[in-house]
Amino acid sequence: MITDTHCHITCDTLYPDADLIIEEALQQGVDLMMIMCTNKEEYLRAQQLKAKYPEHLKVAYGFYPGDVQDITFEDLADLEAEAKAHHLDVLGEIGLDYYWDTTFKEQQKELFIRQIEIANTTNLPISIHMRDASRDCLDILKAYAKTPIIFHCFSGSLEIMKEALTLNSLISFAGPITYKNNKQGLINVAHCPIDRILSETDSPYLSPVPYRGKTNHPAYVHATVSKIAEIQEVDETVLQQQIRNNFLSLFPHSKNS
Ligand code: NI
Hints:
alpha/beta, TIM Barrel, about 40% helix, binds nickel (II) ion
C-alpha cells in the first residue's frame, strides 16, 4: 500500500511507457498515484489512463508558475470548466517559483491567486509548488486558500515547515530526502507529525537513492517511504498505511481505500 502523490507520467518523456510504468509500480506495491498535469494534452492523457486504472490513479491539473507567460484566459476558463465538472481530484501544481526567473513575479502571483479561487469555488484541494518564494507563497495561501493544501516536494527550512503546518496542509517529501548531504531534509522529516506526511516521486525528476541518475518512476517511491520510516523510527507498513490515510483524507467522498 504505497502512495506516490505526485508524478508526471503523462509528460512527453514518460507517456510513451505509461502503461508499463503503472504496471511496474503496481508490482512494487505502489497502488495509488496522482498524475500531475501541467497542460491540456497531459490532462487528456491522464483522463484516459484513469479510465483504465480507476482505483489506482488520481488526476491533478493546474498551471505551473514557470509557464505563466504562456497561459491564456481561455486556458483558465477551460481549467475552471473541468474543475466544475469534477473531472480532476486536485488543482495543481500551482504556486510561485523565483528560482529561475523573477521577471514575472506579479504575473505569477496573479495566476496563483486566480487558480486558488477556482479551487475554492469547486472545493478542490491544491498542490503547491514553491521554490525560493516561501514568504510570498505562504502569505497568499493565508489570505486566499480555503481548501486543503499539499506542499509538494517540500524543501524549505524548519521554520517555514512549521508555518506551513499551521495551515490545513500536508507536507510531501520526495527523493532528495534520501540524498546523503541533505541534512535539512532529515530535520524536516523528523519534525513533521506523521499524520501530516505524504510521499511522492515527482517523476521523471529527483530519483531517490539508489535510483539516482536514472529517470524517476512511481515504483521508486518505496525508497523515499523507507527513508521516512527510518527517520521517524516507525514501522514501514504502519507508515505506508498512515500516508494512504493522510492522502485519502483529502477526498472524503473517494472510493479508494
Ligand atoms: Ni511536479
